Structures are given as structure tokens and as C-alpha cells.
Amino acid sequence: MEAAVFISSLVDCCALIFLSVYLIITLSDLECDYINARACCSKLNKWVIPEMIAQALATVLMLVSMHWFVFLLNLPVASWNVYRYVKVPMGNMGVYDPTEIHNRGQLKSHMKEAMIKLGFHLLCFFIYLYSMILALIND
Amino acid sequence: MSTQGNANPNSSVNNYSMSSTQNGGGAAPCQNGPGQMYPAMYTASSYYSSAPPAAYPTVAGHSAPPTGKTPVSSTGYSGNYYQSSSGLSPYPAPGTHQYSNAPGQSFQQTAPYAMPAGYYGQVYSHPSQGQTQPQPQQLQPNLMPASSGSNLGAPLYPIVSYPSAPGSSQYGTLRSSQTTAGQPPVSTVMPPPPTQSSLQQYSQGIGATPTPAQPGYGAPPLSQAATVNGQSNAVQQHYDQNLHNPMSHHYAAGPPNSQGPDKERPPSGPPGTSVHSSPQHHPGLLYGDRGVNNAISSAAGDHSSSSSDHEEEDEEDEEAGGDSSSTTTDSASPVPNSYESLEGGGYSDLAAPPAGVPAKQAPPFGYNYPTMHPAYQQNPAPKPNPSPSHGGYNPPGYQPYSQPFPSLSELSSALGGLGGVSELEAETLRPVNLLQERNILPPKRAPPPEPNLSNDLRKVNCSPDTFRCTLTNIPQTQALLNKARLPLGLLLHPFRDLTQLPVITSNTIVRCRSCRTYINPFVSFLDQRRWKCNLCYRVNDVPDEFMYNPVTRSYGEPHKRPEVQNSTVEFIASSDYMLRPPQPAVYLFLLDVSHNAVESGYLNVFCQSLLDNLEKLPGDTRTHIGFVTFDSTVHFYNLQEGLSQPQMLVVSDIDGNHLVKDLLNALPGMFTHTRETQSALGPALQAAYKLMSPTGGRVTVFQTQLPTLGAGLLQSREDPNLRSSTKNVLHLGPATDFYKKLALDCSGQQIGVDLFLLSSQYSDLASLACVSKYSAGSVFYYPSFHHIHNTAQKQKFQKDLQRYLTRKIGFEAVMRIRCTKGLSIHTFHGNFFVRSTDLLSLANVNPDSGFAVQMSIEESLADTSLACFQAALLYTSSKGKRRIRVHTLCLPVVSQLSEVFAGADIQAISCLLANMAIDRSISSSLSDARDALVNAVVDCLTAYRANGSNIQPSGLIAPAALRLFPLYVLALLKQKALRTGTSTRLDERVFSMCELKSQPLQQIMRMVHPDLYRIDNMTEQAALHLNDSVIPQPPLLQLTAEKLTREGAFLLDCGSVMYLWVGKCCNETFIRDVLGFQNYASLPSNMTEIPELQTTYSERTRAFISWLLESRTFLPAFHVVKDDASTKTSFFQHLVEDRTESAFSYYEFLLHIQQQMSK
């Protein structure tokens, strides 16, 4: 049981890592002017909800399996994802808005955010991996 | 365009091969982005008969001063030119003479900017004043002999091809615009219908090009033969020669301005005419048509439509020229003479400033802003120094130049010991105790501060009207910038109407290989073959072609090319800069015909306006025009003959001209009895988008109510009870992303959407405006418009339409702003879509929109003394030509905080802060934005106090450069956009925000801090003499009721609206002679214009007002306000220094700031 939880978390985490890498690549493409803002934002906006769900899934899994430490670790990130989604102004086209992304250093802050998330997911990845192995051994 | 494209060996230098392979197939054809290259539309060979050197047909732009011209205009012009280029002489000596007499003079086209025509006139008409000036030293005397000059001028200038009729009439235009500027732009002369000329042109185009559908396309090749247009005149001349169509010539020459008789002044046949007879000269004479129409429109403030006509002719000529296989060499040959005489040797070192040029040379006159380049004085409402001892505009301009060079350097070195603080800086840094100094407002609008550059650089620098930086001394590091607490940013007005613009046609547009910067006056030439980019410091090769200077026709003088002599130039772009064939001008009008709209009666006004201006719409034979009306359904009109079923109707306005007219005549009547109250704006816009997608173009939307049906429907969000809330104002942002998405779609298809909102109720402009904001359109708002009940609005609407329909337009444009390595742009303000980090996508660009950007300093600029900014606007003209307008601004870099303060441009800072505050109020909240504005002042003054050691501790101290800062910020806080506590409709607030974000600086400043004059007692003293008319110069008054007296009459100029406030006891002579009424009591309360009475009093007043309006593009609404009228609140709300129930007075505001600072 325990192993199953961590295996699924691990898979989830891998997906999030890939997503973060994808975000970083796309954003840096935009930074280097390889794609235009419109295309970039519509690409990225598609992944806002999947990311939110994946992160929530990991959080909930930890909650139900009562791994409090990992749960508390995941909670801030999950709530941040929800917060930024809810906070999108009515007139904007999603979390990434093509008309705003070049203004007020938004691109940079998105980039920073993606980097931090990547680091966080990597950290989680090893925690899950360790816990999974531990669980498998214990079984 | 790609580097490969340029360097491609396949495309021989002279052969303008349009085939994609030759251009280097791999090359991305578009400067600004990926995109495939379109195959050329015509074969190169047919155009290219000329030999290599011939590829440089030269146009002696400036040699142009027509000897045969009437002395008036030529004098004025050349005089002005003279000054602007060399700063030598303000004298009215006939320019031609000067030119011819001063072969050795350092004379050249340094003044690419438009000088408002008025400027010339002033110069000219002040002979006496001019002479009171001390003569600028040595060189002067040579220049003066005016009498001999006339003789000399003729032989020297044959080339100049100063066209017979048209050319001179252009001059006439210029001149006349001075006198008539400010008149309502009602055209007195109707141009012949374009059909005539355009048809002709069309046929020619067919003959010349394999692809007849694209006459515009056919034209460029010829022009490719590097034509350098110093000036804008030759167009008509060509026309004249080739076509002998007096009608259209007249049309071209006399733009449909209210120019009065001047423009029809018969072309005095100058010696130049003889030159014309030879067709060979054509190519060489190819002048920029831009300039012509610019001159017209900027000076008189209206129809740039005429421009298009010029262009038509231009094209014809080009083609004709090509046919005649003109040897460009011939045509060019005479030019150099004149140019040589113009250019002399003076500027050789100018183009290649040594890398370490001491950036701060102390201007010899430490006083205020003495070292102005004359070109800089073309403020929209230029206010010349009233003191008679100064010769019109000249003094500031030329004093520095008259200073012998050694003394200059001595001075600067002497001042170098003072820690780099020059006299100028000392003045701008002079501490001012704001609490004690009551009259801080200068008697006339202060000119922008002059960058502290060497004279050479200053002379070629970009006009502050076009390009302005908030800090004219760029701080070296971000840390220093942070210490100053001032925003760093640029304010741009890139597509401004210009009177003078060098247009360059060249096979290779020389650009830096790594950063793609266009070559500009601030690059340095390491030697003859290499130049160093001033933005990225890469060393580039000078292409062979560039070695040849078409101006002097000499080889090996790349630094004298017009690109290197002018900071504002326009290139005719090659196919490398096209993603697709240049689009035609396509206009679609989307008209609301619901009950509400019919009730307001706008349809009549619009149809009439369009009927009047149909021929003046910018465009060529490919121009299309279409109409869509909508209420709850969307109606299309088929204007095509011979069709039986309704089908979308976009029809060429040439073929279907009468149908368009019929429709326009019928439209107002068609819906008079409509009961439909719904409005389906969203679906109508979607239909318009689909319709326009294949071509791109301009959609003009007229809307009178909230969209209530279909996609994009909106709900009323305004709560009238909260209009005067002092708490937060909600709903400043859009309610839906529908309009934004649509705008982005439109932008992608090169469709610009302009919105005219004429509604009496809330229409959610915050949402609707998005459609224009992101498609680079413009927004117009006429609250409570009604054709009978609100005549003032109706008049304003008519005037605006007149300008709107006829102004110049650029299609499928992109603008890139580059800056010196180390600086980076982080925020953009204005109407456009930011496509990538420094690329703005503008579906349409119009001459009335301004832009702002904020910058940060990412790397230290310590290793450079100059920072440069370049804005390049690539657009398709209404004639289907791809053009690039390039502006370059150069500013010194400083390391001292005091220097940063000294160079602060308070007007630019206020505008940038306004833009930032609006962003803030939308993204955060209004109160945040207001706090941020106040904090900007507090922080800045605190920083200054902390920096200054010699400042007395008491009082509120500001450097002189920033003494108006608190006043402007207070004025901003009282703007409709940002005020709280005063009842403001949401739509009006949002519109005010839109205006602040998209207007050019001058317009914003008039809006924020209007000009107040007392006009009932204007005297001739210190008046300005312009072309026989006397223009009084009353001093600016502070915006406080204290300055008003019951005995006076006061004029308040708010940019888009003007008030004449008449006091209760105003002297009756004024009321009788100026307003045409017996006494105060008989004055009606809704006067909207000043009658034209034949009294000196009236003439003087009208002269003053029209002088104020001279450089405006949109004419303001005019209101006469009686002291007791209910309308007076609208007047008093502009008196920003006074206290209102919810806002500080100026003094209180100062105290508030002081209090904040002491915290």
C-alpha cells in the first residue's frame, strides 16, 4: 500500500518535472524570440490546470496516506497554484497573458517560478524515491 | 531582413533582384521575424537598366531652395534650414544665396525634423529681430550678401529641380499653413476625384509591371536606385513633367487644406524648370513624398490624405523614369555641386565622433536651456522668446555655435574641475524652496532640457518631439538610478507628421550585423571601411555601395551619407522587409444602427464627413472600402454592380465610387424608424475580422451603447452611487477577454480596430477599449453625443472625423526599440501588442499615437560615455510601399547623482509616471496608484535632500529641474483618470486613462496641466510677428482661481478642449469686439466658437488662438464659459492648484509631501 502511494507520487512527480522543464524551455524560447507571445501563452495556459491537478493529487495522496511532512511540503505549492489561477483578472486570457507577459518583468518572474518549481519537484522526486524504496524494503 | 540577404553575392549590388533565390533564399525576408519570402512580383531586369553608379541617383534635397521661388518662402525656409544645420545665422537672408555663397560652409541636412511651418515664418518675418542678434562670428559675413546671392543661386542650383509648379506650390503650402493653421480643416479646394489620376496611374503601372494588380509594387524598383531625398518636393515635379495633368498636379500641390490662396500661388518658374525638361533627371529628383504631406498635415494639423496623392504621382514618376531609361548618373551629376556647396567640409568629424568624445561639454550659456538646437524648438505651440531683443527663435539655437570652439573646450575643461557640474547643470540644480517660491510656473511652456552633448552630436540628435527620455543624463548604473528615485524611460511619437524627412532609397540598408541596428549619426567610423555600432559595439564593414555618397557624388565618404547625417530618416525597404506583398489600404466601417444610434444622429454626421473626405482617404488604386451595419443583426452591403444576391461587399472605391456615395447618402435614412434596441457588436466585429483577414486594414467601429447580444455581450457594471467614492474604483479592467482575444486575432491578421464610442449611458469602455488597445487602434469617446442637443460634441466629432479619415496611415507595421548594450526595456505603454521582448506589433500606425517604455540598466554603462536608443518603425504606406522610419536618440551617461537630477525632464517623467500609475490602478487599485504617485515625489525629493550637502534644512527643496514635479503630480491626481472623490463616470475615467496611455507627450501635458492665459488685455508688446499677423504672447498663468478676475477673460487650453472664461465685469469692448455681443448679459451660455469680426481686437485674439492650434492634429472643442453658467464647473475642475472638497490645494499638497518626507 505504502509503496503504491509512493510509486504513484513518483510518477506524478516525474510528470511535474517534465512539465516544469517544458515551461522553462517555452519561456526561454519566448525570451529569445523564437516563438511569439501569443503562441507561447496559449501553449502554457493549457498546462496550468493539469499542473494544478497533478500537484493537488500529490498533496492529497500524502494527506490520505498521512505522511504529514511531505504533505506540508507540498501544500504551499499546491495552494500557490490554485491562488494564481483564481487571481487571474477577468479580462486576462489565463495565467499567462500574451499582452502582459513582456511587461513589468512578468516573463522573468514566470521563469523564476518555473525554476523554483523544478527544484522543488526534483527534491520531491528524491523524497518519493527514497520513501518508495524504503516502503518496498519494509514490505 | 537577414544578413545573408544583404551579403548575398548573388544579388549584385546594383541589380535589384527581387527573385527570392537571388535574395538568398535562406534569408528571412522580414526584418522582424521569421516568415517566408514571397517571390518577387516582377523581374528585376525590366527596371534595371542603369549602370552601377547610376544606382545612386541623387536628390539634392536641400539644394532645393528654388531660386525662382517667391522670396518669402524661400527665405524663410532656407533661413531656417541654415540655422538648423549649422546654427549660424538666424538672418532672413534668402536661403539660396546663402547656399551658393557658402560653399565652404559646414552645411548639410542636419535638420531632418519637421519644423513647423510657423517656424520658418517666424524666422523670416523677423528680419529686424534677427539682425539684432550678435553675428555669429567668422563665417557669418560670407553668408550674408543676399543681393549677390540671387544671381549665384540660379546657376548653382539647376539640379535642384525645383520644380515648376508643384514644387513651389509645396512651398506655398508650407507657408500658407503658417497663416492658416488653426483654421478648421474644412477644405476649400476640392481635389479632383482620385479616379482620374489613379486610373492613369493604374494604366501606367500595368505597362510597367508584369503584375498589374500591384502598381505599388511596380514602383519601388526604380526608386531602388538609391535615391536620396533630402527633401520632399520633387514628387510633384515629376508628376508635372510626366503627366502634365494640371488637375491632379494641383491636387498634389494644394493639399485639401484650408490653405487659402497661397497654395495656388502660381509656380513661379524657377531656373529649375529648365532642368526638368530633361527626363533624365527624374530619378534623381525623386523626393520623399512623405515630407510633403507631412509638412501639410503637421503644420496645418489635418489631412495627410493629400500625401497619398503625392505618392501616387511619385510612383508614376518612378515608373515613367524607369521607362525613359534615365541614366541616374546624369541626374545625379548636377546635384553634387549644390550639395558640396551645402555641405562644405564642416562636418567631417561629426559622423565619426571619437569614441571618447567628452560627453559633457559645458554649454557656454549656463542659463536655463540655452543651447537648444533650433530644431528642438518646434514644440507644437512654439513659444518664442517674447523679449524683442531676441531674434525670434534663433538665439538659443545659435549662441553655442557662435562660440569659438577653443573657448568651448576651455570652458568644459575648466568646468571639469567642478566635478562635472557645468553651468547648465548648476542652473538646473539650483535648489528651489517650493514652499516659498510662489510663482514657479515659467511664463511660457518650458522647452525640454537639452542633453549635455557636444555641439556636433546635439545638432544631429533626434527631435524631443519624436523621442524623449525622462533623464537626459543617463545614470551609469542601476544603483545610481535607484538612488535618484526617478523613472527611466522613453517617450516616443514615431509616426509624427514631419515637414522634413530624408527619404533614402538604397539597395542595401546598412545595419549592424549582430544587433541589426540601422546605421545612424552616432556610430563611429574606425576608418573608411569599418564602422562601429553604437549599440552593441560590434565593428562592421561598410558595404561598397555605402562608400559612395550620392549627396556629394563622391566616393569614400560614408560618413556624409544622409543616414549618418540625420537621426530621423526613412528608408524605402526592399522585399527583404516584406512577409507578403504590401497590403492595399482597406477600410471597413462598422456602424451601429440601433435605435439608440439613430436617435443620437451620429449617422448623418458620419456619412456627411465620409462623403466629404472620400477622395482624401489615404490609398491608391487598390484601396477598398466597405460598410457593415449592425443592431441585433449584422447587415452587409453589396456595392458591386451586376450582382443579384447580397454578398459581402468590399469594393474598390474607384470602381464603386458612386455606389459608395449612394450608400452614404441613403444610410442615414434607412434606419430612421428602427425599433431595434439591441446591439450585437461582438458578432459584427467577428464578421469584420473574417472579412478583413485576407488583406488586413483598418476597421472603424461606431458604437453607441453596451453590446447586448451574441458573443462579447457585456453587463452594466457601473454603480452610479459610487461615482464619487473616495474608496476604490472598481471595474477599471475588462470584464471579458473576448475583445482582447479578438484584438490579438486582428493584430495577427494586420487589422487595426479604431473605436468611436458615442453613448450617453455606461457602455463599458474598459472592456470595449481592449479591441483597440491591442490592435494598435485609437479610441474616441463622445459622452452624451447628440446631434441637436449637444452641438459642441457634434462639432468635435466632425472635426475629429475630418482628421481621422484623412490622416496618414501605415499598415502592417512593427516597431523595434533598441538601446545601448546594458540597457533593457521592461515595460511598454501604448496601444499595440508586444510580440517579443523589443518588438511591438502595430496593425495600423497613425501619426497621432504616442508610446512610452520603461527601462532598466542591467549592466554598468561605465565604459561608455554615450547611450543611444533607436526606434525603427517598419510599415506599409497607404500606397503600398514598405518603408522604415528610423529615429535615433543619443544621450550622455553620467556617474554623479547631481547630474542625473540636473538632466531630469520633468514633463517626460510626469507622463511616464502617469502611464505607470494607470497600469497600477488597473492591476492593483486606484488608491495604490495614487499613493505611488505621491511617493514618487516624496522619494525623489528625499533623495535630492540626502544627496545635497549645501541645502538648508528647512523648507521643501527641489532642484530647479524638478521644481514642477509636485505640481504635475498634483495635476495628475486631479485628472479624471486618477481622481477620487469627485463624481466621475466610469467610462470617462477609462477614456481618460486610454488617452494618457496613447497620446503623445505634448498632448498629455496640455491635458494634465492646461495652459491658462488672460486674453482680454493682450498687448502687442512682446508679440510675435508672423507673416504680417501679430500674435500676442500673454504669459502663462498658474492654474488657480486666484489668477482669475471678474474684469478679465481667460483662455484655458486643455489640449482636446479649450475654454474661454468670461468674467462678470469683463470689459465690454472685449465682449463686443471679440465675441460679438453687446454686453455680458446678452452672451449665450453655449457659445462654441469665436465669431470672425473685423476688429483688431478680434483679429488679435483669433490670431493667438489659431497660433496655439497651429501644430495640433485634432482641433479642440471650444467653449465660451460665463462666470455664472452652470458649465463653469467643467472649467474650474482644471484649476488644479485650487482646493476641492476632496483634494489638496497645491500648497497643502506641498505640506503633505514635506510631512511625508520627514517621516
From TrEMBL, chain A:
Membrane topology term: Multi-pass membrane protein
Coiled coil spans: none
This protein's record includes keyword Cell division: no
GO BP term, example: vesicle-mediated transport
Cellular location(s): Membrane
Keywords: Membrane, Transmembrane, Transmembrane helix
Origin superkingdom: Eukaryota
TM regions (residue ranges): 5-25, 52-75, 118-137
Any one of the GO CC terms: membrane
Family stated for the protein in its record: Belongs to the cornichon family.
Record-given protein name: Protein cornichon homolog 4
Organism per entry: Cyprinus carpio (Common carp)
Gene: LOC109077117
UniProtKB/TrEMBL annotation, chain B:
Compositional bias annotation for Acidic residues: 310-321
GO biological process: COPII-coated vesicle cargo loading; intracellular protein transport
InterPro entries (UniProt xref): ADF-H/Gelsolin-like_dom_sf, Beta-sandwich_Sec23_24, Gelsolin-like_dom, Gelsolin-like_dom_sf, Sec23/24_helical_dom, Sec23/24_helical_dom_sf, Sec23/24_trunk_dom, SEC23_SEC24_subfamily
Domain spans labelled Sec23/Sec24 trunk: 582-805
Sorted UniProt keywords: Cytoplasm, Cytoplasmic vesicle, Endoplasmic reticulum, ER-Golgi transport, Membrane, Metal-binding, Protein transport, Transport, Zinc
GO molecular function: SNARE binding; zinc ion binding
Subcellular location: Cytoplasm, Cytosol; Cytoplasmic vesicle, COPII-coated vesicle membrane; Endoplasmic reticulum membrane
Domain Zinc finger Sec23/Sec24-type intervals: 509-546
Protein name: SEC24 homolog B, COPII coat complex component
Regions of compositional bias (Low complexity) in chain numbering: 73-89, 127-141, 297-307, 322-333
Organism of derivation: Cyprinus carpio (Common carp)
Residues of the Sec23/Sec24 helical domain: 905-1005
Domain spans labelled Sec23/Sec24 beta-sandwich: 810-894
Pfam families named in the record: Gelsolin (PF00626), Sec23_BS (PF08033), Sec23_helical (PF04815), Sec23_trunk (PF04811), zf-Sec23_Sec24 (PF04810)
One of the record's GO cellular component terms: endoplasmic reticulum membrane
